[in-house]
Batch of 2 targets.
Target 1
Amino acid sequence: MENERIILGIDPGTTVMGYGLLKVEKNKPDLLALGVLDLKKYDDHYRKLQRIFLRTLSLIDEFRPDCMAIEAPFFGKNVQSMLKLGRAQGVAISAALYRNLPVVEYAPLKIKMAITGNGQASKEQVADMLRRFLHIKEEQMLPQLDATDGLAAAYCHFLQAGRPVSEKLYSGWKDFIAKNKERVRK
């Protein structure tokens, strides 16, 4: 279908990698999948990178996304942690490129701003807004917020990919909610 596309979102990590997939039809996003790759059982860092690569490939092969949105590593105080996170991100990007899938990278601040309107929003706030926007049932939500962080990258890309000019303009989140009561669940 010409109006249909699938976006894979990844929140890279060497302990837990979160992912979410959106199916967009006629500019309306719906949750396709949400999950995590738990890497805690692996002691070997290289084995973890291999698992990230293979899981990313399997998601691409199963869902056939049109692009991958990935959260960029943020600057931290621990250089070793940053190095490991950068490797995890690089391996996920490599898997996408191996399948000729376009990749778009978003800073955590940009993702939070796109979803909540606040770049300092908590993971819980991001998860709650996604639940409301996508009408996700409470029992479908995972306890690991890495999953919704991956979904947030996909949703951010959906928002950034450009809306038709005919879309309504909003002065803020309260205005959006007031004009879209059918799309927002409390």
Note: The radius of gyration is 16 Å.
Target 2
Amino acid sequence: MTLSHLQVDHVTRNFKIEADTLTALDDVSLDVAKGEFVTIVGASGCGKSTLLRLLAGLDVASSGTIRHAGDTVAQPSLERGIVFQEPRLFPWLTVEQNVALGLLNSRLPKARKTELVREHLELVGLGGFGGVYPHQLSGGMAQRAGIARGLVSRPNVLLLDEPFGALDAITKADCRTNCRKSGPRSM
């Protein structure tokens, strides 16, 4: 029997909208083994992004439990990275500073953090753009900065919420190839 690396156990997530309750997820269970690649497919608005936010620890389930490596997911962790559908960059921070947010709670020395940020900007084709601000980037470049932020901590679970949707076909193929090089955490 293989132990689950990521376990979703009877998770429901309800949202209050005025006097009504909207159920985004209803009694969802899922087990993911270490090293397994899982794709969740469904219509727009069916709860895919909600599930990813719960797995990342950015939201809390109404009921049920989520575990990662045996521990209950109750808050964000460097062990679980997420890349959103849109970049979600802070406009007052440079690209380098936005990517460095992925290491904010890391105990790595400052020099190693700086090196990792530089490596990951290179990885997504943004070497030389670390000092610019998000408004100075194209949409695809901003999305690649968001991808670098999700990868920079080398999480052992990477949650991707349609991150390549804003990229052209050539850049999308390059990112898929290059981002595999980031691999599991080895710091």
Note: Residues 40 and 48 are 7 Å apart (CA to CA).
